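Input (structure):
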């Protein structure tokens, strides 16, 4: 499981593109998907915090926090920009941050209210994806999206009937055709 910093060092342009979409309205804004106790998905808006240290999120006492405490799997998707259908996606595992100095530093930088019952989670990156759609004139997408995907080779592979080797840490561009 790669930290955001490791991912960003490996693929700085992809990481920057994802950061721009997550922070397009100032503070981070995206949709966090977690796994409910019954295995179903749960989606909520959140304000992710991206720093040189990593990708973080302050989560108040809520069903999504209990999901992350029980089963750390997550997916984070950017909010769509007004002028395009570009999108960013990151998935991996969330783990609680327990270092008091790191907690204090990030809380101060993100202006997290100390009297609120929040817990800070760091999000590792197993998969990162950025899709850009070329726009013309009236903001209508032309052709299929250009998709860039990064996979962490150290991330556990998804269960499968056929074992598959994970590729070396890499990024790839995929050109999709219009539907």
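Output (sequence):
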């Amino acid at each position: 499981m790669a930290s955001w910093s490791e991912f960003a060092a490996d693929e700085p342009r992809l990481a920057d593109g994802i950061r721009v979409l997550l922070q397009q309205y100032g503070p981070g804004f995206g949709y966090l998907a977690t796994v409910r106790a019954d295995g179903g998905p749960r989606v909520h808006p959140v304000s992710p915090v991206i720093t040189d240290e990593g990708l973080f999120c302050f989560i108040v006492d809520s069903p999504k926090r209990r999901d992350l405490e029980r089963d750390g799997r997550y997916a984070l998707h950017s909010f769509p920009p007004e002028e395009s259908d570009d999108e960013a996606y990151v998935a991996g595992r969330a783990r609680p941050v327990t270092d008091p100095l790191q907690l204090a530093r990030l809380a101060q930088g993100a202006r997290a209210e100390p009297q609120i019952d929040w817990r800070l989670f760091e999000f590792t990156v197993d998969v990162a994806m950025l899709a850009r759609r070329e726009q013309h004139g009236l903001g209508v997408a032309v052709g299929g999206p250009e998709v860039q995907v990064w996979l962490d080779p150290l991330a556990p592979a998804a269960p499968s009937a056929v074992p598959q080797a994970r590729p070396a840490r890499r990024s790839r561009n995929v050109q999709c055709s219009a539907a």
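Notes: The first helix runs from residue 4 to 10. The chain has four helices and twelve strands.
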